[in-house]
Amino acid sequence: MKRPEQIVVGVGAGAAGFGDHERGGGPGMATQDMVLNIGPQHPATHGVLRLRLTLDGERIVACEPVVGYMHRGVEKLFEVRDYRQIIVLANRHDWLSAFSNELGVVLAVERMLGMEVPARAVWLRTLLAELNRVLNHLMFMGSYPIELGAITPMFYAFRERETIQAVMEELSGGRMHYMFNRVGGLKEDLPAGWLDRCGQAVTAVRSRLPQIEDLIFGNEIFQARTQNVGILSRELIDAYGVSGPISRASGVDFDLRRDEPYLAYDELVADGVMRLSLRAEGDCYARFGLLLDQVQVSLDIVEACLDRLRSLDRGPINVRLPKILKAPEGSTYAWTENPLGINGYYLVSRGEKTPWRMKLRSASFNNIAVLPEVLTGCVVADMVAILGSMFFVVGDIDK
Amino acid sequence: MSFPGKGLLKGLAVTMRTMTKRSVTAHYPDALPELPPRSRGVIALIEENCTVCMLCARECPAWCIYIDSHKDTIPATTEGGRDKSRNVLDRFAIDFSICMYCSICVEVCPFDALHWSPEFEYAELDIRELTHEKERLREWMWTVPAPAALDEGAEPAKEITTAQKAAERQGRPTP
């Protein structure tokens, strides 16, 4: 009787129905390889990411991320929607950074139209983009420890999120999908007293951030599981186009807010408010720690924007648009530094009210593409620690 | 000074301190949340304002607004005058199981027939019940809050400037 060369095991629902993996042990080998399916429905993948791991005992010898379970064909959908309707869809691919996603679309269209955006709108957009960054990072600062078995930080992170979401909801009416950007500015102006309430929210979050820091950053168990685990090298970052906090945790000195400033970031960089957070280690702990650094910087930027908005002259928040908005023929590429990395829209217009093509470059897709390189050679116990520290949103991978 | 377990103890100290403070959890069904006026909970309709221009249904990115109408003829009131025709709304329904809460319909409505209400308690056991017909949409209208006052640095609302200009044209004093 022929001995089976490979054992196939699934974890989580939907693991059935896969073929043989091309990598087998071979008749000459003493050990058997095991193919372990993580997902598509698995708590550690927060969404429907599926990883096919080939294991040699406890060690991962190969990893294949299987993406596309949540593919919605958003680029095709963009082609049959006008620019306001595109914002509705665009803010949903990365549901944790809705405002920044909207921003890329309107920046692209404004650039095509050569449109000047009022100063109030520019500063308010900068402020909201940074609040959005804080919300996004707080989410991961809560969810990452959960994946490593620490439940408590989630409650603290969500208390801060709730504080900021309250001001975001008061302004935009939405808690996640703000739908607040419009071509030429923002949908509505500030409600009276919002600047003060936003300032209070920022002060409150800043005063309570040390609690999150004390809770998890010094924790020996957390450190043991994350330090020197899943080190991402500069070569891999360059090869796979990894961006955002993950790349800066490996010492990559690149941030679009500084290197290709949009909105009011050039002034903020000149004033020294916008500082780049960098860490050199490139391990899970550095990636996680960088989120906290970035939150501090973002809160500084929000406060600077609040001051500026108070001192600005009375003025409009948006540009009055024609009934039918058509982008002139041509193409442009607008990229922004989203909370998770570089988010770009390549917009090609043939002068219609809908784009001819709108390519979406989302951060998570590239950031997750590097996983096989990082995971190979690690043990299964580190898999969740590394996967979680790549800070991805499945909707952003699958588009 | 550093000793093993210091980080763990620091974390526990945070938990201890928080334990003595009031809980921040809102006990939802017992305590209702205070929602801002801009909150997008449900769309309300003033039927009288609707002229069946179909803008909302056409602009909706999810095509979740259903409008049926017919034309009524109003007979001429004067001798030899022409009959007038008028659009009458038969059905106006929004399917909230499809709606993406993007606010485009409310924004495009030129006659202020659609408004946002922060009400959110309309979950149903049957998905078909989420299609609210015009009577139900009218009911939501009573829950629509007044818009929030704008910031000092903001331009006054479009409605106010238009009203002021109209008043100036007619030579009435403006407030």
Automatic annotation (TrEMBL), chain A:
Its main location: membrane. It is found in: Cell membrane. NDH-1 is composed of 14 different subunits. Subunits NuoB, C, D, E, F, and G constitute the peripheral sector of the complex. InterPro entries: NADH_Q_OxRdtase_suD, NADH_UbQ_OxRdtase_49kDa_CS, NDH1_su_D/H, NiFe-Hase_large. Keywords: Cell membrane, Membrane, NAD, Quinone, Translocase, Transport. It comes from Nocardioides jiangsuensis. Its EC number is 7.1.1.-. Belongs to the complex I 49 kDa subunit family. The lineage of its organism: Bacteria, Bacillati, Actinomycetota, Actinomycetes, Propionibacteriales. This is NADH-quinone oxidoreductase subunit D. The gene is nuoD. Residues 148-324, 325-399 form the NADH-quinone oxidoreductase subunit D domain. The keyword Membrane applies. It catalyses: a quinone + NADH + 5 H(+)(in) = a quinol + NAD(+) + 4 H(+)(out). It is a peripheral membrane protein. It comes from the Bacteria. NDH-1 shuttles electrons from NADH, via FMN and iron-sulfur (Fe-S) centers, to quinones in the respiratory chain. The immediate electron acceptor for the enzyme in this species is believed to be a menaquinone. Couples the redox reaction to proton translocation (for every two electrons transferred, four hydrogen ions are translocated across the cytoplasmic membrane), and thus conserves the redox energy in a proton gradient.
Automatic annotation (TrEMBL), chain B:
Residues 41-70, 90-119 form the 4Fe-4S ferredoxin-type domain. [4Fe-4S] cluster 2 binds at residues 60, 99, 102, 105. It comes from the Bacteria. Binds 2 [4Fe-4S] clusters per subunit. Its cofactor is [4Fe-4S] cluster. It is found in: Cell membrane. NDH-1 is composed of 14 different subunits. Subunits NuoA, H, J, K, L, M, N constitute the membrane sector of the complex. NDH-1 shuttles electrons from NADH, via FMN and iron-sulfur (Fe-S) centers, to quinones in the respiratory chain. The immediate electron acceptor for the enzyme in this species is believed to be ubiquinone. Couples the redox reaction to proton translocation (for every two electrons transferred, four hydrogen ions are translocated across the cytoplasmic membrane), and thus conserves the redox energy in a proton gradient. This is NADH-quinone oxidoreductase subunit I. It comes from Nocardioides jiangsuensis.
